Amino acid sequence: MALFELHSRNLAQEQVAHTHDFHQLILATCGVTELSMEGQGERVNARRGCLIPSSRHHEYQGDGSNRTLVLDIPVAHLASLEKGGEIERLFDKPRFLACPGVKSAYPRSGQSANSARRCRMKSRFCCCALYMYLQDATPTAAGQLGQHSISERLDLARLDAWLDKHLADEVRVEQMASLCALSPGHFHSCFRELTGVTPLAYVQRRRLEHARTLVRHSTLSLGHIAMLVGFRDQGSFSRAYRRYFDVSPSSDR
User: Fold this and answer.
1) Which residue ranges form the domains of the chain, and what is each CATH number?
2) What is the pLDDT of residue 133?
3) Are the CB atoms for 84 and 78 separated by under 8 Å?
4) Per-residue three-class SS string for the chain
5) What is the mean pLDDT of each run of 10 residues along the chain (253 residues)?
6) Is CB count within 10 Å lower at the N or C end of the chain?
7) Residue whose C-alpha is closest to residue 179's, from 3, 236, 26, 165
């Protein structure tokens, strides 16, 4: 493997899990890739990138329309770099980083280039990534990114759309976590911090709010509505409905 290997890829809508014996830096100009590394998970897009250390297990799934640039950095060659030690320290653990204005560091699609130009482009890409990391690592930036990072990882609009298609099914925290490329435990804590409720309490609320629309604006039987929103029987549905809305579904109708 050469000193740096830069690839432009479109990551498909399939989940991939693997490790490799070189460091990797991943950025994107468009689209989204869900990526998880050892309990950390975020969405890699034009504003967020990541550093993946050698031999660290990671999982990813693209949206099929992303343009993702991947820089492979062989561990064995870092010692030959003047600042190899600094680069090595960047990869002491998995990291996600903010990348404002990173598009200017990317080659345009269809651009032809000779070897010297490609080397300059690779160097610029690497320097841009290192600069972004150093900016992101400052205390001020870290404080600014905390809540914003959580809201980006937990795309509630996307979760709501998925939940609305599966209200009649059993919904598990593991399924919701996988949509955000997070471990179940990390997803649970982030979700509660963002919404103030647990994931399962949120699902229950979503079921009941959808049920109320059906109760008030449809002629479906209460038993049928209970089934459509994921309750095992009309009795459990009516009890949950009364606890949440302080009125029975039959009275609400």
Assistant:
1) 5-146 (2.60.120.10), 156-252 (1.10.10.60)
2) 53
3) yes
4) CCCCEEEEECCCCCCEEECCCEEEEEEEEECCEEEEECCEEEEEECCEEEEECCCCCEEEEECCCCEEEEEEEEHHHHHHCCCHHHHHHHCCCCEEEECCCHHHHCCCCCCCCCHHHHHHHHHHHHHHHHHHHHHHCCHHHHHHHHHHHHHHHCCHHHHHHHHHHCCCCCCCHHHHHHHCCCCHHHHHHHHHHHHCCCHHHHHHHHHHHHHHHHHHHCCCCHHHHHHHCCCCCHHHHHHHHHHHHCCCHHHHC
5) 73 84 87 80 82 88 86 74 60 77 48 53 57 49 45 78 91 86 81 85 92 92 93 90 92 90
6) N
7) 165
pTM greater than the 0.70 cutoff: no
State the burial class of residue 211 (Cβ atoms within 10 Å of its Cβ: 0-12, 13-18, 19+): buried
Cβ neighbours of 61 (radius 10 Å): 20
How far CA 52 is from CA of 114, 189, 241, in Å, comes to: 29, 23, 47
Q: Report the pLDDT value the prediction gives residue 25, as an integer from 0 to 100.
A: 87
**Amino acid 94: pLDDT:** 85
**Tokens for 52?**
């993946």
User: What are the tokens at 127?
Assistant: 């320097």
